[in-house]
Amino acid sequence: MKNCVIAIAFAIILTNSATAEDNVLKVGDTVPEFKMPYATRDSIADNDLTPKMMKDKRYLLAFYPADWSGGCTKEVCTFRDSFEDLKKLDIEVVAVSGDYVYSHFEWAKHHNLPFKLASDPTREFGKKLGVYMPESGMHKRSVFVVGKDGKFEYINYNYSVRDGADFEALKTALAKK
Questions:
Q1: How big is the chain by its Cα radius of gyration, in Å?
Q2: How many whole angstroms separate alpha carbon 88 and alpha carbon 95?
Q3: What angle do CA 91, 93, 97 make, to 5 degrees?
Q4: Catalytic residue annotation
């Protein structure tokens, strides 16, 4: 019985690993279709965020695990504090988590976040991008820059907020375009 349980657990781990590897995207790939409700510090939007809505815009998709957590607050506040610099680089920020738009709205108001917070409660978009972590039910902290042509210009699947190095690397990559 013990061997059977171990074999099943190993099979689940292999299946989850294969799924994550299958969904890894590369620079130059086209952003997959998405349709997500979103909020800003001012309101919960009446329409959903889609690639068509972002057509001809250069934007950052910043995935994070959850509203109201320490690391995630640090991440979005870094984007907030650098918002004008990112605008000068022709970047629109879209933060994405599995939290509902009601939480996003309150969090955006609380921290005065000047950008969209998209909600992926089904985790479908996160799965398409390979950032959904089934073991926690959350998205892995990752960033994707989508160019005006709808293709990825920059991807960091292991984005960290610990020391600011990944944010500096992101800004350097953004400035090159």
A1: 17
A2: 18
A3: 150
A4: 72
pLDDT in tens, 105-134: 999 999 999 999 999 999 999 999 999 999
Long-range contacts of 70-74 (CB under 8 A, 24+ apart): 71/141, 71/161, 72/97, 72/141, 73/111, 74/161
Percent of residues in the chain assigned helix, strand, coil, to nearest 5: 40, 20, 40
CB 106: neighbour CB atoms within 10 A?
A: 14
**Cα gap 14→19, rounded to integer Å:** 9
pLDDT of 8 above 60:
no
CB 154 within 8 A of CB 174: yes
pLDDT category of residue 24 using cuts at 50, 70 and 90: confident
* CATH level 3 topology of 26-175: Glutaredoxin (3.40.30)
Mean pLDDT computed over every residue of the chain: 88
- Residue 91 CA, distance from chain mean position: 15
Reading the block at residue 129, the tokens are 């991008």
**pLDDT higher than threshold 70 for residue 4:** no
**CA-CA distance, 23 to 134, in Å (whole number)?**
14
- Which pTM does this prediction carry? 0.85
The residue with tokens 């089904």 is 122
Domain ranges of the chain: 26-175
